[in-house]
Amino acid sequence: MVFSELFESALAKKSKSSSLPISKGDDRAKAQKPEKNSVKERQPRPESRKRNSDDRNHDKKHSNSKRQRSHSKKPLSAEAIELTKQLQDCSRRKRLDEALHLYRSQKNDFIRDGHHACILVDCCARCGNVEEAEKVIDALGDDCNVETNTALMKAYAHSGRILQAMQLFRKMIKLAKEKPNVRTLNTLLRGCLWTASVSVSVSGKNDELCGGVVSSEEAWELFSKNVGAEHVDVSSYEYSAVILCQALRTEDALERMKQLQSAYNIVIKGKACISGGDQASLESLAVVNIALARAYALLGDFDSMWTACQRVFSACKLSRSLLEEEMNVTELESPVSKRQLKKQQAVGGKRAWKKVSDEGASQRKSSNNTYRNHRLTEMENEAKELVRLRKQKDKGDLLEQVRCGLLKRLFYFGGGGTTDLLKASQASSASVASDFSSPLWYSFGLAEVMQSTTQNRLSSDTKPIVSGSGKNTASAVGSQGTLVLNQVFDNPNLPIDVEIGAGFGDWIVRQTSVRQDRNHIAVELRADRVAQIFAKGMLGLNMSSSKRLCVVGSDAGSFLAFRLPQERSISTFFANHPEPPTQTFGENQSELGAIVDGGSEPAHMLNSATMISMAKCLKTNGRIVIVTDNRWYARLLSMTALRALLVLGKEGVRLKSESSIALSKGGFRKVETFSSGTEMVELLEGQPNEQIGHIPYDPTSEGGASYFDRLWRSGGGSHAERKSRFVLVLRRIR
User: Fold this and answer.
1) Residue 295: how many CA atoms within 13 Å on its side-chain side?
2) 289: which of 283, 477, 680, 709 is 20 to 30 A away, CA to CA?
3) Cβ proximity of 482 and 426 under 8 Å
4) How large is the angle between the packed helices 631-650 and 589-596, nearest 10 degrees?
5) Are 579 and 604 in contact (CB under 8 A)?
6) Whole-model pTM?
7) Partners of 549 in the β-ladder
8) What are the domain boundaries of the chain?
C-alpha cells in the first residue's frame, strides 16, 4: 500500500480525540474508539476475582499439569533426567550442534520425549536456527504440546518471522487441546514489540500485513475470544499497550490501560492519585504511561503528556515502595524453611548444594531489585525531561519536525528480538525493500501524525521517500533497497558516523547534538528501540540537528551487506557495550585460538563477518571503535578482530589496530596483545573520550552518557565497580 492510498483512507476516518482522561469516570476515549480496533469489553470482576500480578504463573502451572500427571504414573528414569540436564546446559551455552547430537543419538532413542524436544527447540531459538526447530516439531507430529509450540514461537519472534508466528498462533487457537496459554501469547506479543508491520508475500495468496501493531491486536482479539481475557497477565497488558503507544494510537492504548487497571484493582482519581495494585502491576502502569507521554509529545499534545508524566511519578513511587517492602521481608525471613530443607535433603542431601542454591537465589533477588529500581528511575528521568520539553517546544514546529523525520530519515528494513547476527538472504532483503510505507504508517505513527495536521498536502520538504507505485524507491533509497546517503542528509559532504546496536539512543542523540560537524546513523534491530531512538531524536534535538540523524531498523549484518553497499562511505563505526554471547564460550583458550584459524564463533553481533563488512564500508583512515566493560568479551572481540585483519589482508583491505602509543594522549593503556603472523591487535583500557570520537561528559553529573553509564552509577550490572572501559580501535589504512 502506498502513501497516497494510506493518506486518503486516513482522511476518510472520523476525526478522533486523543486527550488523556482526567478522572476514572471519563469514557470519552472509549466512546470514540473505532469499532474495528476494539477488543471485546470484559465485565468488571467481582472483588473475589481481582488478581495479583503473581497470578501470571497460573497458566504456566496449568500448562505443565498434563506432564506432571504423566510423571506421577511413571517416574522419569535417571537417563531421562541426565539428558534433560545436558540439553539444558547446551541451550544455556548456545551450543546447538552439541544439543542436536545428544538429542538424535541412538542411545537416546528410547529415552527422549516431548520435554526433551521442547528444550531442543528452545536451544534452536536461542541460537537463531529456526529451520532446525521446525524439523524437531515436524518429527513430533500430533505429540507436539503447547510448551514446544511456544518454544517454536520464541524462535520465530527472535528471528523476526512474525508471519510464521501468527500462522502458528492461529493454528493453535483452533486446537481442541493444547491451545495457546499466556506464555504463548506473551512470546508472540514480544515478537510484535520487536518488529514493525510490513507487507509480506504469501505463496498463492495476496500479500499479508503482519508484525507490529497489526499482529499484536489480532493476537489479543483471538486470545480474548478463544482462551479468555481473564488468562492474560500484567506483561500481556504492558506489551500490547506499549505497541499501541509506539504507533501513536493513544485512544486504543488508554483503553488497554483501563483493562489493566480493572484486572489488578488499580484506581486513578483526579489526574494522578493512584491506589491499589501491587509492585509488578504498578511498574507496568508506569511503563505504559511513559510510552503514552512519549506518544503525546510527538503528537504535540503537551497537556495530556503532562498528565501522563504525573502518573508515571505516582506509579513509580508506589512501585518502589512495595519493592522495598518485599526486599525487607525477604531479608527478615529465613530463605529456606525447615520443611523445604528436609525435602531438599531427601532429594539430594547435599548441604553444599543447598548453600550454593540459597546464595544464588539471594544474589538473583538482589540483582532483580537493582534492575527494577533502575528501570523505575529511568522512567522518572524521562518523564522529567518531557515535562521540561513542554516549555521549550512549539506544537506546530514539533509536528512538522516529526512528520519530516518519519518521511525522510526513518527506515525500517527488518527486525527481531535477538542481537545475534541474522542470516539474511538477498531474497529476503529484497522482499522487505519493496514496502517502506507500511512500517512508518502503522507501527511508527505516521497515520496519526498526518491526522494531527490541517494540511491535506505535503510540503516539498516532507515528500514521501517512495514513489506512487509503491514498488520503486525514490532518491533516498536505491532500486535495490540501499540507502543513497547523499540524499538522506541535507548536507551530504559531512563525515558520517554509524552506531551499530544503538539501544535506546541516548549516546547517538547526544553525539548528534554536540558534534554538529558530522552526520549520524543509528542502527538498531528491535523496533521498540527504533521508536525510542526516533522519539529521543525528535524531542531532544532542534529541527536543524534532527536533520543530521538517520534512524534505521535492521540487524547489523544485513544493514552492512545490503543497505551500505558503497565502499569507503563511512568515517567511523561505533559499537558501545554490545551484548556478549554466553560466557562459557572461550572458557578454554583453544576455543579463542580457533577463531583466528577460521573455527566456529559464538552467536553475537560483532562476529568476524560483521567486522569485515564494517571495514569495507570505511573510508581511508576511517575507524571502528568498540567499547565494553567486560574483559572476557573484550578478549573475544580482540581475537575476532585479529581474524578479520587476516581475512581482509588477503582481499587487499588493510586494517590496523590502533596502539596505546597513538592513543596515549587520551589516557589509554595497553592491557593485552593478540597476534598471528604479521598481524597484531592491542586491547586498551581507559575512559572513552574525544580521542576515540566520544564526546566528553561529566560522570558525576545527573544522567550519564548512556543507559549503561546510568546503570553502573546505580550499582547495577556485573561490572559496576569498574571505573574504566576496555577499548578496541581499528583503522583502515587502505
Assistant:
1) 31
2) 709
3) no
4) 20
5) yes
6) 0.84
7) 520
8) 394-579+586-732
pLDDT confidence of 345, banded at 50, 70, 90? very low
Q: Per-residue DSSP letters for 39-53?
A: -PPPPPPPGGG---G
Q: What is the CA radius of gyration of the chain?
A: 26
CA distance 568 to 240: 42
pLDDT, one tens digit per residue, over 473-483 is 346 888 778 88
Q: Which three cell numbers stand for residue 11?
A: 482522511
Torsions phi, psi for 523 (to 5 deg) = -115, 125
pLDDT value at residue 35? 41
3-class secondary structure, 342: helix
List, in order, residues 6 or more apart from 210 with CB less than 8 Å away: 162, 163, 166, 197, 198, 200
* 615 neighbors 730 (Cβ within 8 angstroms): yes
Cα 338 off chain centre by:
42
C-alpha 254/C-alpha 311 separation (Å) is 13
CA distance 669 to 685: 5
Q: Where are the beta strands (DSSP E) in 471-606?
A: 496-500, 519-524, 549-553, 570-576
Q: Are 291 and 253 in contact (CB under 8 A)?
A: yes
pLDDT of residue 431: 42
DSSP string of 104-115? Answer: H-GGGTTT--HH
Better-scored residue on pLDDT, 721 or 29: 721
Q: Give 178-220 pLDDT, tens digit per residue.
A: 999 999 999 999 999 999 999 888 876 778 999 999 999 999 9
| Mean of pLDDT over the chain | 81
Q: What angle do CA 139, 95, 645 make, to 5 degrees?
A: 130
- Report helix, strand or coil for 447: helix
Superfamily of domain 394-579+586-732: Vaccinia Virus protein VP39 (3.40.50.150)
Which strand (E) or helix (H) includes residue 117? Answer: helix 114-127
Best CA proximity match to 560, nearest among 605, 599, 527: 605
Q: What is the pLDDT of residue 126?
A: 84
The highest-confidence range among 216-230, 416-430, 483-497, 566-580, by mean pLDDT, is 216-230
> Cβ neighbours of residue 163 under 8 Å, at least 6 residues apart?
200, 202, 208, 210, 211
Q: How far apart are CA 152 and CA 134, in angstroms?
A: 7
| Average pLDDT score over residue span 400-410 | 91
Q: Which residue has the cell 575476532?
A: 640
The three grid cell numbers given for residue 33, joined into one nine-digit string: 474508539
Helix (H, G, I), strand (E, B) or coil at 574: strand
> Phi and psi (nearest 5°) for 581?
-75, 180
- In eight-state DSSP terms, residue 480 is T
Secondary structure letter of residue 467 according to DSSP: -
> CB under 8 Å, gap of 24 or more: what pairs does 426-432 form?
426/562, 429/481, 429/558, 429/561, 429/562, 430/480, 430/481, 431/200, 431/201, 432/198, 432/481
